[in-house]
Amino acid sequence: MNEEQLIKQLNRINPKPSKDWQERVIKHFDNFVTPEPKLRNSFSNIFNFLKLSNMSPKLKAIISVITVVATLGAGTGTIYASDSANPGDFLYGLDKTVESIQRTFTSDPVKKTELELAIMDERVLELKKLSEDDNSEAVSELISEVEAQQLRLQERFQEMNQLRTENKIQTQEQQQVMEKLQAKIQVHEEIMNQIQTQLKSNVDNSNSEKLKQLQNKYSEETQNQNQNDGDTQNQEQEQEQNQNQNDTQDNSNSTNQNTIRQQGQN
Amino acid sequence: MSEVQFLVTWEYKKRNSLMNINQLETIEDLKKLFILLNEPIFKYVYTRCGYNRETAEDITQDIFIKASEKRAQFNKNKSTLKNWIYIIARNYIIDLYRKKKGIISGYSDDIQEIITEQSTSDGNEMMIETIIESLDKLKEQEKEVVILRYIQELEIEEIAKIINKNHIATKVMIHRAIKKIKDIVDSQK
Fold it and tell me: Which among A248, B85, B119, B124 counts the fewest CB atoms within 10 Å?
């Protein structure tokens, strides 16, 4: 068989739809055809607009810049939106990633503590929201995360205290962050109490027990830290007092010397 | 003759050639489009999706629904209505292949039903079954260009636009595919 014969045979393949079907479709055309066409979405409109050949290159450049800025804006928007995402949400993974990136890029101990504190804040609120939904599996998972976050916070606490005793930093900022920590911890405890009540009303005993243990640990640690903190403060106060006493002694010494000199001159 | 039957007749087609439809705004426009192009699109779907009349009719109907939804995107300065609907059909079929839905392999209808009778017999009637079988052995794109060129009888320029390739590449692809079919048919003799 040559190619010409082959093409002739192919030309003969001519299936036709049934007349029934054609009539049926035309008859019911109004039923299946949407009266209003679907409009393109805004993004493809932008690109279609760029394709217009009569547009000046300058205008094209301006539009490109606007598009890039808008896209970046949308990206930031997503990250911002992810911040309020709850476990199980689409953006929750992104939320966690953003947190770990923030951790990597924060080196200042005071800022680090503030960051961990903010994350703890978020976790506790998430837990509160989730406990209202009565999803015991997700709640259990989140309690473990709160626990992990609490350990991180504890580390920050220890570091801050260590720095204080070593007198590496002794700033107002540090003092403020410590005060903030204590205030926040009280708030967290209150919220955890509320969650506890919620879990009990959900008859979610295992999670309730888990949270209770965590709460005990949390308050224990805080008390320890507070004691340490108190000790350090006491030591500092003592040091300061000693210093002041020395100063006064020095002053009195110098005053005595001055009086002697004056007496001598007289 | 009912109105519907009249619409399907050749007379109507002649009076309302595709040249007269350059917009797709009303349901009437879409109806005309269906009347003029349902047969070629059906043929295209039929040969590409398993040679089964019912399946091909369903898919063709879906393609026209899709076209009606997308009618705002039709730009008469960019392509002809015929090419536009072929592109929609092609994308629809590619999508089906991806989902592996509605595609039946091999042919399920009686081959004799789909052949146009020729007055002069060239003694090769039995070959058509072998040709369809060899067509199925080609790569998807090769099969597609052969269908578009020799079963749909489109111009190379039109095919190039549908498959989004340049004229020469399309021509070469068609040539190679035909040679392949010839080799397969010859080897089975």
Answer: B119
Structure tokens at B81: 């209505």
Same structural domain for residues A154 and A74?
A: no
* Structure-token pair, residue A7: 């093409």
CATH of the domain at B151: 1.10.10.10
**pLDDT tens series, chain A, 266 aa:** 788 888 888 888 888 888 889 888 888 877 766 666 655 554 545 555 555 555 667 777 887 788 788 877 776 766 666 666 666 666 777 777 788 788 888 878 788 888 888 888 888 888 888 888 777 778 888 888 888 888 888 888 788 777 777 766 556 777 777 777 778 887 888 888 888 888 888 777 778 888 888 878 777 766 666 665 555 555 555 555 666 666 555 555 554 555 445 555 54
Q: Tell which of B25, B71, B154 to mutate to test the A interface (max A CBs under 10 Å).
A: B71
| Contact B174/A at CB under 8 A | no
Q: What pTM was estimated for this model as a whole?
A: 0.48
Answer yes or no: do A17 and B61 touch at CB < 8 A: no
Residues of B within 8 A of A54 (CB-CB) are: none
Q: Which residue of A has its CA nearest to B116?
A: A12
Q: Are residues A52 and A109 in the same domain?
A: no
Provide the residue range defining the domain that includes A206.
90-231
Tell me which residue range forms the domain holding B52.
Answer: 1-109
Tokens 């108190």 belong to which residue?
Answer: A230
Residues with Cβ within 8 Å of residue B71, at least 6 apart in sequence: A37, B24, B25, B30
Among candidates B57, B151, B186 on the partner chain, residue whose Cβ is nearest the Cβ of A13: B151
Is residue A7 a part of any domain in this protein?
no
Mind telling me how many Å the CA of B156 is from chain A's nearest CA? Answer: 15
User: What 3-state DSSP class applies to B115?
Assistant: strand
* Cβ–Cβ gap B38/A25 under 8 Å: yes
